[in-house]
């Protein structure tokens, strides 16, 4: 038998240019991996170290509702889980729970205490230092938007606690994407870098194995702007999926998932417009979630809510105390 009959007809060799060309950003792969990971009931999202320390503290003693909310506003995933548990008929009484404050009140120490204890015993620490800056940045942005949404809602008919909850969860898809890239073996996206990739620093050996990462952390881009082009096409869909996973009321899911587009033609809800306005205010105060903001977002939100330029300026003035609150965390 000839070699030709075994190997088959010759194939065309790929060009050098095609071999060197960067692969397109794996947005669909990221979306699918995200859904697969968070569908698993066994998956425990990692916690930022300071949040983990606070969680352990509260799990060991009685705490006030305000202390629970202060913890949850620093971790959108834990907040989403609390909202999910509160939606169950046992706790909701058959009605929709629409705010984090209501969820904490309904669940109380009797339910939240064991939840926090269980979370603290299974927790892992997010230790990828290359991804830590954007993780902290998004966390600060979400906290700022939550407080700013509550502030802005006072100029509208929107419930302030509902606005706070939506503001806190509005970019949870970005946090999810960062976790997928920074906490698993998934290869980091192919992006145009201004400098070579750098490997994350080695984790301290003193960290207990019980909270070690599930897999080695891959080299990763260190600039948030380099990650954003890959995450941007996915984060809204990821956020909407997570809201569904947590069984949030449709009113909240719609506002959270579509807060970037509040043009009059879409007939956005007042809640979505409040979140969009708060999102823009956070940028103005120095708490961005990404490297860009649609210049039409804030004007569209103001128009949807019927707020004037003077009211917008008053909001910016009142927001200064929120800026200090978020900066001190």
Characterization of this structure:
- The chain is mostly helical.
- It has a single domain, classed as Hypothetical protein af1432, CATH 1.10.3210.10.
- Helix content is 60%, strand content 0%.
- It contains 17 helices and no strands.
- The N and C termini lie far apart (74 Å).
- Residues 1-25 and 185-221 have low confidence and may be disordered.
SS strand fraction = under 5%
Architecture, CATH level 2? Orthogonal Bundle
| Span of the ends, CA to CA | 74 Å
Q: What class do helices, strands and sheet pairing give?
A: mainly alpha
Mean pLDDT: 77
For CATH, the homologous superfamily is named as Hypothetical protein af1432
User: How many domain modules?
Assistant: 1
In a nutshell, what does this entry contain?
The chain is mostly helical and about 325 residues long.
How do the strands and helices of this protein lay out in sequence?
Elements (H helix, E strand, L loop, with lengths): L2 H5 L8 H5 L6 H13 L9 H11 L5 H8 L3 H11 L2 H4 L7 H23 L9 H22 L6 H10 L2 H12 L40 H22 L4 H8 L12 H15 L12 H9 L3 H10 L1 H8 L2
Helix pairs in contact: 3-11, 3-12, 4-8, 6-8, 9-10, 9-11, 9-14, 9-17, 10-13, 10-14, 11-12, 12-13, 13-14, 14-15
Give descriptors for this structure.
Hypothetical protein af1432; mainly alpha; 329 residues; 17 helices; disordered N terminus; globular; single chain
